[in-house]
Amino acid sequence: MSEELQFEDLKLLPGTKIDLRSEQYAQLKGASAYVGYRTQRGIIVSTPLKGGNPIACKIGNTLVVRLFANHLNCACAFRTEIIHVSTIPFAHLHLAIPEQMEIGEVRNSARANVQLIASIFSTETKTSQSATINNISADGARVHSKLAIGNIGDAIKISTKIKVLEIENIVKVDGIIRSCTNIDGQLVYGIQFDNIDDQTKLAIYALVMTQLTS
Fold first, then answer.
1. Other Cβ atoms within 10 Å of 116 Cβ, number
2. Coil, helix or strand at residue 199
3. pLDDT tens, per residue, the chain with 214 residues
4. For residues 155 and 124, is the Cβ–Cβ distance under 8 A?
5. C-alpha–C-alpha distance, residues 108 and 138, integer Å
6. How big is the CA angle at 196 (ends 13 and 200), to the nearest 5 degrees?
7. The domain over range 111-213 is classified in CATH as 2.40.10.220
8. Termini Cα distance of the chain
9. Is residue 54 packed enough to be buried (19+ CB in 10 Å), middle (13-18) or exposed (0-12)?
10. In the chain, which residue ranges form alpha helices assigned H by DSSP?
11. Element (H, E) at 212
12. Where are the domains of the chain?
């Protein structure tokens, strides 16, 4: 994918979830929402909250922004700085238009071997149990479990913790059991993710890319 893309080429919809991180101030981080932009003037995003209150931000603070652009099916990251802080009519930030963006297409075939402890909830039996995710991609996972978690076609909910570059994210995603194999007394399930949101997809994609390039 071309690196000559401009911010407006992402065609983000208002409300798109984004992740803000400051490389200078550890406390300046969190989930935000895209509000809009003005060509060559700036980007408007909601101010991240902590304990229900807006995090203190100052003009000139530099930020790393990460998001998932549905229009291009890509993960995107860029550096910017805060050029205005406002609390009216809601807490929001104006960010400088980035000069460069790092983007990567999310390919369903990109998979990574991992060892993630997960909680699996069966919507059929209404029970939860622990399992291990051994392989993951942007659209599914391979799950190992000592006990049965369901039958092929059953809907489940997966909760696990993903850590990328010292940043931890609790990921919750719906899934459907597509296969089940007994290997050496352990059940191995092929899970297809279902209705995965952009923020979760971005977190998983970041994990996959980190594992593949490490």
1. 19
2. helix
3. 444 678 998 899 999 888 888 877 777 888 899 999 998 899 999 999 888 899 989 999 999 898 888 777 777 888 999 999 999 999 999 999 998 887 766 555 577 888 999 999 998 889 999 999 999 988 899 999 999 999 999 999 999 998 765 667 788 999 999 999 998 888 999 999 998 887 787 778 777 766 654 4
4. yes
5. 6
6. 80
7. yes
8. 22
9. middle
10. 198-213
11. helix 198-213
12. 7-105, 111-213
- Residue 210 is which amino acid? T
Contact yes or no for 32/16 (Cβ under 8 A):
no
pLDDT value at position 1?
Answer: 42
User: Distance between CA 100 and CA 5 in Å, rounded?
Assistant: 8
Tokens matching residue 146 = 């000592």
3-state SS assignment for residue 45: strand
Token representation of residue 50: 């902590």
Class of the CATH domain delimited by 7-105 = mainly beta
